[in-house]
Amino acid sequence: MPAEKSYLFSIEFAVRDYECDIQGIVNNANYLHYLEHARHEFLISRGISFSGLHAEGLDVIITRIEIDYKYPLRSRDLFVVRLNLRREGNIRVVFDQHIFRLPDEKPIVKASVVAVATKNGKPVAPGNLISRLGLND
């Protein structure tokens, strides 16, 4: 996948030693942390905080994650998490996220993360959150 593909957001990281297993590769669960941290940083870049949303009575929860592991990262590898965003129906927002090793852009992970907004524990239309995320309503 070419680096030139357009993404809404990207953030770079380096693999830390303690994220690797006995085989010397990143433990599969850590990729979920990388993806989550990238989503949080994306929200912050849009002026959105989870605590602020919660104070407004809106909670955003993850309902599904589908992840394809393509190639492992190793200690000290540099990598980038890139994301795009799309609507799915009236209440779901999907983060399409990709991880690439740097500098060679080797595909590492492809993930689809589904989120819904809830109010009092019940799914609701995300309202103005959609425009704040940069999506068209």
CATH class wording: Alpha Beta
Q: Examine the secondary-structure arrangement and name the CATH architecture.
A: Roll
Extended strand count = 6
How many distinct helices?
A: 3
Protein structure class: alpha+beta
Largest sheet: 6 strands, antiparallel
CATH topology: Thiol Ester Dehydrase, Chain A
In percent, how much strand structure appears in the residues? 35-45%
Radius of gyration: 16 Å
What percentage of residues falls in helices of 4 or more residues? 10-25%
| Shape, per Cα inertia axes | elongated
Give the H and E element order: EHHEEEEEH
Low-confidence parts lasting 5 or more residues at pLDDT below 50? none
Number of domains: 1
Mean pLDDT: 92
The CATH homologous superfamily is named Hotdog Thioesterase
Distance between the termini: 29 Å
Written account of the structure:
With 137 residues, the chain is of the alpha+beta class. The protein has a single domain (9-133), classed as Thiol Ester Dehydrase, Chain A, CATH 3.10.129. The chain is built from 3 helices and 6 strands, in the order βααβββββα. Strands 1, 2, 3, 4, 5 and 6 form a 6-stranded antiparallel beta sheet that branches. Strand 4 and strand 5 (106-119) form a beta hairpin. The radius of gyration is 16 Å and the shape is elongated.
Q: What tags apply to this protein structure?
A:
137 residues, alpha+beta, Thiol Ester Dehydrase, Chain A, six-stranded antiparallel beta sheet
